[in-house]
Design brief:
Blueprint: H1 4-22, H2 31-48, H3 52-61, H4 64-71, H5 74-87, H6 92-103, H7 119-130, H8 134-148, H9 165-169, H10 175-181, H11 193-217
Helix pairs in contact: 1-3, 2-3, 2-7, 3-6, 3-7, 4-5, 5-6, 6-7, 7-11
Bound molecules: adenosine-5'-diphosphate and nickel (II) ion.
């Protein structure tokens, strides 16, 4: 069992390491996304009675695999995170647990289940998904859309319910369609009661935004 002073040092060093790795990312995986996921995950973890060290480490590291994904192999990031933790003398069970969590975080399409085995993983996944909802989620979606070079909105392109991860990944849709293809589906996929009740208000805000968006498109307001 790592003692508390060690844990504080490990968390601080890991945060610094990830901050350097993510640098000036503009695809929605910047440091402040990690910071929000960390604080929301910890708030949920305190209410749900989870292991705070595992939750905080996994929240800090959760997008490292995703970030690597852009450069090639997704499992590379996961392995690099595990190696980092081993170098910090984190106990093997925790290294394995954190690795499992970050390997199972991502949303993979409307028709693809993304089960998370442990409470700690469920909490970090909820916190990550909450950051894709509400005002922040809207800002991130349009930032990502610009980064990926996709249109804001095209009434001639219908949203799709992706049946596989490959299908979801290769999608070339619009950012408004992303609301139907992912964001509006998240509320019913939250794992914890705390996460689920936080998702309700953020989901309602997405709906308000869309209603207003269509009103403005039609010149109604
Ligand atoms: P996560 O942090 O959950 O792993 P992703 O890597 O899927 O999120 O995406 C990062 C952010 O970009 C999220 O807010 C997500 O909703 C948004 N995003 C992902 N794919 C698209 C897309 N095709 N269009 C618009 N936004 C997207
Ligand atoms: Ni994330």
């Amino acid at each position: 069992m790592t003692d508390i002073a060690d844990r504080t040092t490990i968390l601080a060093r890991t945060a610094q390491h990830v901050r350097t790795l993510l640098g000036a990312d503009t695809s929605g995986h910047d440091w402040w996304h990690i910071e929000r996921v960390r604080s929301v995950a910890l708030a949920i973890a305190r209410r749900e009675g989870a292991d705070l060290f595992v939750v905080e480490l996994a929240a800090i590291l959760h997008d490292v695999a995703d970030w690597k994904f852009h450069a090639g192999d997704g499992t590379l990031g996961q392995r690099a995170a595990a190696e980092w933790l081993v170098r910090q003398s984190v106990e093997p069970a925790t290294v394995e647990h954190v690795g499992e969590i970050i390997g199972h975080m991502s949303f993979k399409g409307a028709g693809v289940a993304t089960p998370m085995r442990t409470l700690e993983g469920q909490i970090v996944q909820d916190a990550d998904r909450l950051d894709a909802l509400g005002a922040i989620g809207i800002a991130r979606a349009f930032a990502y859309g610009g980064h990926a070079g996709q249109a804001l909105y095209d009434p001639d392109i219908e949203p799709r319910a992706h049946a596989s991860f490959a299908d979801y990944k290769s999608n070339r849709g619009t950012t408004i369609n992303h609301f139907y293809e992912k964001l509006l589906l998240l509320k019913d996929r939250m794992n914890t009661r705390t996460g689920s009740s936080m998702a309700d208000a953020r989901h309602a805000f997405l709906e308000q935004f869309l209603a207003r968006f269509y009103d403005e498109c039609a010149g109604r307001s």
